[in-house]
């Protein structure tokens, strides 16, 4: 049943051209809560520093996996079709724009749930809607509007490879039929084009926001239908919000493997791709199982990294052997929005299960982390639930934070609320 919408809330200030998925006639309540969550500067700094340190540590592990066939787990071949492209990827960062998701245990410690290193969303919420909420609820906002999202692109423009480029195309693409993907891509497109147009006004840069169906992939480059094809031999940067595990199987109507061709162009540096191919390894939840195994056996990690993993990585395994008699979660290594997650109680009984027949991949098993419930205000009134704290990391540097709450549940899924984060002066 659709609940009445409360008038006079901060949400009325949201520009739905920037973030259209605030409300929907089919929804019981609006996506954001009407109130916010006060976050202390200390908590925010802790979340940011933890996120940055984890990305740096796990990125080091990803690079080691590419060159070391003696690792105990064969993570690369969990996406066998991508393996040669991952190994050949020499991009300077494992992921350019990543979002790390955490729960807080009952001691207040951030525990990593997953990393979306390939196609992170939540960008308009983080950089736009949070600012609107702060301005309306507490009267000011010092939060970034996301200008740092341009850093992966400006770093490329500053590199030797672009020094003598006569023309540069920067293409942003997603499937327009998926509103969330398109909205996130559009936000990055706007921020990046604004920053580069101002800072690099002396360069001949063309920007394009294009549906995936409008991409034209050639042997020597990528273009879109509305950019003249005589530009295809120029330098091109492609931002794609389209998962690699789907891209690798994409084919044209005549059966040409356009997805793999795109990866080939990226590794040959004919184009630069944001995020790079190897980001899929950082996104693979089995990487946490490998990180935990190496920690347990005092392998690979230095002392500081061991402390980081002990404190912030949830005990994660590729089998249930170490979790007998404990409450744990089964997850697909590339699951999204809480799909195909199962909670198993200490007695072996299943207490929660969400199935999606489209998911068919390997599984990981994580110790269940009990977290404190919180209360927020929605169109339905007070609602209790568990929080997921997120932080974006851009070219290995921590950026802004994002919060969701799953009502009356323990697994954050598609029905979670977006909760605005409010600066607390403490």
Describe this structure in words.
- With 426 residues, the protein is an alpha+beta fold.
- Helices cover 27% and strands 25% of the residues.
- The chain has 10 helices and 19 strands.
- The chain has helices at 41-67, 83-88, 123-137, 151-157, 179-199, 244-247, 258-267, 279-283, 286-296, 303-312; strands spanning 37-40, 97-104, 110-116, 168-174, 205-211, 215-218, 221-224, 235-241, 272-274, 316-317, 328-332, 342-344, 350-353, 363-367, 373-378, 381-394, 397-407, 417-418, 421-424.
- The strands form 5 sheets. Strands 2, 3, 15, 16, 17 and 18 form a 6-stranded antiparallel beta sheet that branches.
- Helix 1 (41-67) crosses helix 10.
- The longest helix has 27 residues, at 41-67.
- The protein is globular and about 60 Å long.
Oligomeric form of this entry? Answer: single chain
C-alpha end-to-end distance: 40 Å
Largest sheet: 6 strands, antiparallel
Number of strands: 19
* C-alpha Rg (nearest Å): 22 Å
Overall mean confidence score, pLDDT = 91
Low-pLDDT regions:
none
Structural class: alpha+beta
Reading the helices and strands in chain order gives EHHEEHHEHEEEEHHEHHHEEEEEEEEEE
What portion of the residues fall into strands of 2 or more residues?
Answer: 25-35%
Helical stretch tally: 10
Summarize the amount of helix as a percent range: 25-40%
Based on CA inertia axes, which overall geometry fits? globular
């Amino acid at each position: 049943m659709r609940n009445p919408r409360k008038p006079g809330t901060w949400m009325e200030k949201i520009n739905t051209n920037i973030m259209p998925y605030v409300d929907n006639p089919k929804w019981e309540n609006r996506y954001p809560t009407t109130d916010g969550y006060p976050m202390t500067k200390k908590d925010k700094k802790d979340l940011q520093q933890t996120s940055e340190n984890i990305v740096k540590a796990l990125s080091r592990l990803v690079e080691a996996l590419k060159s070391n066939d003696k690792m105990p787990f064969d993570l690369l071949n969990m996406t066998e079709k991508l393996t040669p492209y991952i190994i050949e990827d020499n991009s300077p960062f494992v992921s350019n724009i990543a979002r790390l998701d955490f729960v807080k245990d009952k001691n207040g410690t951030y525990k990593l749930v997953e990393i979306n290193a390939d196609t992170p969303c939540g960008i308009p919420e983080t950089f736009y809607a949070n600012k609107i909420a702060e301005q309306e609820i507490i009267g000011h906002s010092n939060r970034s509007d996301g200008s740092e999202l341009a850093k992966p692109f400006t770093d490329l423009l500053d590199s030797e490879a672009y020094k003598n480029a006569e023309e540069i195309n920067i293409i942003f693409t997603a499937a327009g039929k998926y509103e969330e993907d398109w909205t996130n891509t559009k936000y990055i497109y706007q921020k990046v084009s604004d920053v580069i147009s101002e800072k690099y006004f002396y360069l001949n840069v063309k920007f394009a926001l294009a549906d995936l169906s409008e991409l034209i992939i050639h042997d020597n480059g990528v273009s879109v239908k509305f950019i003249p094809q005589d530009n295809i031999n120029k330098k091109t940067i492609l931002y794609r919000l389209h998962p690699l595990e789907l891209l690798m199987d994409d084919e044209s109507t005549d059966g040409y493997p356009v997805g793999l061709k795109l990866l080939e162009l990226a590794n040959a540096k004919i184009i630069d791709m944001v995020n790079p191919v190897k980001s899929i390894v950082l996104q693979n939840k089995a990487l946490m199982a490998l990180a935990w195994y190496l920690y347990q056996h005092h392998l690979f990690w230095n002392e500081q990294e061991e402390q980081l993993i002990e404190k912030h990585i949830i005990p994660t395994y590729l089998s249930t052997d170490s979790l007998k008699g404990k409450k744990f979660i089964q997850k697909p290594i590339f699951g999204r929005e809480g799909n195909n997650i199962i909670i198993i109680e200490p007695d072996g009984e299943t207490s929660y299960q969400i199935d999606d027949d489209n998911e068919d991949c390997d599984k990981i098993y994580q110790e269940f982390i009990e977290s404190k419930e919180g209360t927020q205000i929605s169109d339905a009134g007070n609602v209790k639930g568990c929080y997921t704290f997120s932080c974006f990391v851009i070219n290995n540097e921590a950026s802004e934070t994002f919060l969701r709450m799953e009502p009356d549940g323990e697994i954050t899924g598609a029905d979670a609320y977006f909760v605005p984060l409010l600066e607390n002066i403490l």
